[in-house]
Amino acid sequence: MAKEKKASLFLNGEIEDVDQIKSKFDKENYDIVIGVDGGANHLQRIGAVPDYIVGDLDSIDKESLTFFIEKGTEFKKYPSKKNETDTELAIWLARDLGAQSIDLYGALGGRIDHEIANIHLLYYIIKRGLNPRILDKNRDLYIVGKDPLEISGKAGDLISLIPLYGDAKGVTLGGLEYPLEKYDMEFSKPRGISNVMIGQKCSISLEEGYLLVIKNEL
After folding, report:
1. pTM above 0.85, yes or no
2. How many beta carbons lie within 10 A of that of residue 194, not counting itself?
C-alpha cells in the first residue's frame, strides 16, 4: 500500500512557541511544505525551507523573501484583489501535488475572524476528500465526518467535541473517560466539552454530520 502523501501549510497566524512547533513539524516528515504568504516567516524561524510560497506576498518579510529566493523555493504570486484567499490557493496546490492529508500551522491566534475562518477550512478540506488537521502549541484540531478518527496522545489529555453545521448523529467514543455509543449530539449544546483520554489512543466516529475535535495536551 502506497504511503499517504502529506502536506504542511504555514499560515500567518500566531506561533508563540517556535521550538514546540518545530518539534511537531520535524516529526511529521512532510512530502510537501508550503508557506502561505507571511506564514513563510514562521518557516524561516524554525529553519525549514518550503517547496512553494503562495500569495500576493504582501506580508512576507523582506529578509525571508530574499532567503527563500536564494534557497530555490518556487513562488506562486497572485494579485491581492481576488476571490480566493491565499490559503485556499495553497490548499488547491497541495491537492494538485497529490497530497492526501494537509496540516495547517499558524492557523490560530491573531484576528478572531481569521481564526474562525481557518477552523472552517477543516470542513473545506475534508469535503474535497483530504484529511486535515490544525496543529498548534498545546492543541490539535481535527474534523470527523463519515470516516472514523483515531487520535494519539496520553492519559489526561482533554478531548472536546463540537457539532458543526447541524446535529452530529450516532456519535461513538472509545478510549475516553466518558464513552458514548450512537449518541446524538445537538448542534449548539456544549455536551462534548472536556472529555478525558484514559490511555494513549481514543476513537471517534459518527453516522451523520460533522464534529470539530479539539485535543488539549496537558
Report:
1. yes
2. 13
Residue whose C-alpha cell reads 506576498 in the numeric block: 57
185 in Cβ contact with 171 (< 8 Å): yes
CB distance 85 to 11 below 8 Å = no
Enumerate domains of the chain plus CATH numbers: 6-137 (3.40.50.10240), 149-216 (2.60.120.320)
**Which secondary structure element, helix H or strand E, spans residue 150, and what is its range?**
strand 149-152
8 A C-beta contact, residue 98 and residue 3: no
pLDDT tens track for 24-35: 999 999 999 999
Residue whose C-alpha cell reads 529566493 in the numeric block: 69
d(CA 110, CA 13): 6
Residue 197: all three cell numbers together: 483520554
Question: Which residue's C-alpha cell is 491581492?
Answer: 80
Place of cell 472514523: 148
Biggest distance spanned by C-alpha atoms of the chain: 55
Under 8 Å between Cβ of 173 and 203: yes
Q: Which residue has 449544546 as its cell numbers? A: 189
Q: How confident is the model at residue 3 (pLDDT cuts 50, 70, 90)?
A: confident
Element (H, E) at 218: none
